[in-house]
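name: query_chain
kind: protein
chains: 1
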Amino acid sequence: MDDVVKQPKWYTSHPSGIECIEITKFMNFPLGSAMKYIWRAGLKDDALLDLRKAKEYIDIEIGRIEGLDRERNK
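structure:
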């Protein structure tokens, strides 16, 4: 039976057999979230929606890095 709280089927249905958390736990929040949406794109909901969500998190990380660069160049 699928445990939708601890281990929903879309967490473990990637062709690699690896759970995304095993990789994303080593990333910061925006990159981990982007990876999560890319990893599971289309497994739970609409793949295009998942990729748009991933893009939003990537844009957040780009903004964070650009901000760090601006601070270093002051």
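note: Residues 34 and 58 are 6 Å apart (CA to CA).
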